[in-house]
Design a protein that fits this description.
The complex is a heterodimer of chains A (296) and B (346). Chain A has 296 residues and is mostly helical. Chain A has two domains: 195 residues, no CATH class; 68 residues. In chain A, 72% of the residues lie in helices and 2% in strands. In chain A, a hairpin with a 2-residue loop joins β1 and β2. By secondary structure, chain B is mainly alpha-helical. Chain B has one domain: ABC transporter involved in vitamin B12 uptake, BtuC. In chain B, the strands form two sheets. Chain B has a two-stranded antiparallel ribbon with strand order 1-4. A two-stranded antiparallel sheet of chain B has the order 2-3. In chain B, a hairpin with a 2-residue loop joins β2 and β3. In chain B, α3 packs across α13 and α13 packs antiparallel against α14. Classes of the chains: A mainly alpha (296), B mainly alpha (346). At the A-B interface, α4, α9 and α11 of A face α6, α10, α12 and α14 of B.
């Protein structure tokens, strides 16, 4: 293949980008769930993901639980954690300006990073291996097993969450609250409970994303940086659009993989944020977001 | 209003320092600031300079976020622009500090206007996240335009030279930074009594209504960005001269969050809030270090210090937002009101 452009290599990079993008989409989904239900822009989503991964770490390495037991345990613990956060920090901010609740999540992120460093130190840790280790071959492209299985997990979980939103009672209540809070109240939906539910669900989704991200790249207290890319994902797709989070996640994943490979690793974040600026200039409310019309 | 202080002219009503008591305290404060360097140790002078630099930047951010309602997470990036401007001007052409500081402010101002341009279309938190993008790009420029910025190693800066006197310690630097801080605060306080300041407040309260009332939104939003990043640029320049080194890592996103936290803790939309917030947020880590030193942690104190700082920092933001959303300035006002109304009670 001298001289010619290596299409299989490109394919391989796009595939691994899609793999990473699946995780962005998953985390973006957690973000959108919170935003749709409670209108809180949760900048601490990356830190929640980190907490999920560390809980899993504590259950497997610290308490020596088998992996199949540790994952549900970590999800459960994350759910409780989400509920506590909602009750202690977010509930009192009901009715305050969006900027205040945004800043609360900034504070939350800082608290979580500090707490993780206090308990597990700032050093990078490795999660136990549980994905099959043989690389997956698609045509001539070779894909790392972790990325492939991570993508599969992301797709399955996204599917499950979407089904739950569509058919489960709680999911319907969540969508109702998202589309009209007043109407949801008057139809007998317990809106504060929906808020709790959204945070619990988001924390659990973030936990799974965290476990996968951690098993690919290891866990450390700066894992929350992942959340910055997720912010771009949800802005790209529109803060309140599930579809946007999914498409945005894949697009950002592929763009990061392409820039990382063809231009250089240090350009990845730059490319992501350039994309963000472009989208904001053309469609300030994201690709699929609701364009809110302001009236006096 | 103070009991027994009836105002008889509009000028008296609009005055910054309106009662003799207040003027007395301002004079006392000025005197205390002038005497402080002669009694304080080097460590306290260092802290005073740091607090003063933070106050300038926080005051700038408060004009943008507290008064105009545009949330920005790019304050550290603008400080970086200012710092690099001062550093480059000094290392390349030997421009003295008193000339390079205003230039630093102006270049940061230009960057601020560019970043502010989307603010007409992009609002609220979208804007906050767009300003994070500004920070990412600034970091990229700082670390990749090595010929000018020295790459990731950064630049080292010589002490500021003011009229032939090298400001090479905190005692000397104090006399540069404190008057600048006072001027910045006075400027901010005065700005907010003018048409411009009132326009900012109108935009914060409801930008569409403001436009209907005849306030050109784009011009005033850009003006807010310009003023705020000018303050940040000057603060960044001082930062470079004070620490005598700038690297791309000197101005991370966390620093922008620090300033946003400072004005929230201090009080949004209040000049006093910027001062109290910057003072509080700068001194808390130092107090923590003292307290941790007393605890019997046997050498581990240093290890725990940084995470504890991070936790306390986050907790302060959350606690203030939940329990005292108007910040320290409101606490201060409440205390003052008690004295003003004395012997009556509210």
């Amino acid at each position: 293949m001298s001289g010619g452009f290596d299409w299989w290599l490109l394919f391989e990079i796009v595939l691994s980008g899609l793999g990473a993008g699946g995780l962005y989409a998953l985390t973006g989904l957690a973000f959108v769930t919170i935003y749709k239900a409670t209108r809180v822009v949760n900048i601490a989503i990356g830190e929640m993901l980190m907490v999920g991964a560390y809980l899993f770490f504590a259950f497997t390495v610290g308490m020596k639980l088998p992996v199949w037991l540790a994952i549900p345990a970590a999800m459960l613990a994350s759910g409780v954690f989400g509920a506590v956060v909602e009750r202690v920090m977010i509930r009192p901010m009901l009715g305050e300006s969006p900027i205040s609740s945004f800043m609360v999540t900034v504070g939350l992120g800082s608290i979580l990073v500090g707490a993780v460093e206090l308990i597990w130190t700032a050093d990078q840790q490795r999660l136990p291996e549980f994905f099959p280790s043989a690389p997956v071959r698609i045509g001539e492209a070779l894909l790392s097993a972790k990325v492939f299985w991570g993508f599969v997990v992301a797709v399955l979980l996204i599917g499950a969450v979407l089904l739950a939103f569509r058919y489960w009672r709680g999911g319907v209540a969540l969508r109702a609250t998202a589309s009209d809070q007043q109407a949801a109240y008057s139809m007998g939906i317990d809106v504060p409970r929906v808020f709790s539910l959204a945070w619990v669900a988001a924390a659990m989704i973030a936990c799974v994303a965290g476990i996968v991200v951690g098993s690919i790249g290891g866990i450390s207290s700066v894992m929350g940086v992942f959340g910055l890319s997720v912010l771009v994902v949800v802005i790209f797709g529109g803060l309140d659009s599930v579809l946007g989070a999914l498409v945005g996640g894949l697009v950002v994943g592929v763009i990061e993989a392409l820039t990382g490979f063809y231009i250089g690793g240090e350009y990845r974040l730059l490319a992501t944020f350039l994309l963000l600026v472009l989208v904001l200039l053309v469609r300030p409310y994201g690709l699929f977001g609701t364009h809110e019309i302001e009236r006096l | 209003m103070r009991i027994g202080a009836a105002k008889q002219t509009y000028a008296a009503d609009a005055a910054l320092f309106d009662t003799p008591t207040q003027r007395f305290w301002v004079a006392a404060m000025a005197l205390a600031l002038a005497l402080f360097p002669f009694v304080a140790s080097e460590y306290w002078l260092y802290l005073a300079c740091l607090v003063a630099i933070h106050i300038i930047s926080a005051a700038g951010l408060n004009i943008l976020t507290g008064y105009t309602g545009l949330v920005s997470l790019g304050q550290a990036a603008f400080m970086g622009v200012g710092a690099y401007t001062v550093a480059v001007l000094q290392t390349r052409w030997g421009v003295p500090a008193l000339v390079s500081l205003p230039i630093a402010g102006l270049i940061a101002l230009l960057c601020g206007v560019v970043v502010g341009l989307p603010s007409l279309r992009v609002k609220g938190l979208y804007l906050a996240i767009a300003t994070i993008a500004a920070g990412v790009m600034a970091h990229f420029v700082f670390s990749h335009f090595s010929s000018l910025t020295g790459g990731s190693a950064g630049l080292s800066v010589k002490p500021a030279n003011v009229f032939g006197l090298a400001l090479d310690n905190s005692f000397r630097f104090y006399w540069l930074v404190i008057p600048l801080t006072a001027a910045a605060l006075l400027g901010a306080a005065n700005l907010l009594r003018t048409r411009i300041g009132r326009a900012f407040i109108a935009i914060r309260d409801r930008d569409i209504s403001a436009e209907v009332l005849g306030i050109p939104l784009l011009r005033y939003k850009l003006l807010a960005f310009a003023i705020s990043s000018f303050y940040a640029g000057v603060a960044g320049g001082l930062y470079a001269l004070f620490f005598r080194a700038v690297t791309p890592e000197t101005f991370p996103l966390v620093m922008s969050i620090f300033f946003l936290a400072a004005i929230i803790v201090g009080g949004l939309g209040s000049v006093l809030g910027s001062v109290l917030g910057a003072l509080f947020m700068t001194l808390v880590p130092e107090v923590l270090r003292l307290v941790m030193g007393w605890l019997p942690l046997s050498g581990n104190a240093v290890l725990y210090l940084s995470p504890v700082r991070t936790v306390v920092f986050g907790a302060l933001i959350v606690l203030f937002l939940v329990f005292e959303p108007l910040g320290l300035a409101e606490v201060w006002r409440r205390v003052r009101r008690t004295f003003h109304l004395w012997p009556f009670r509210t």
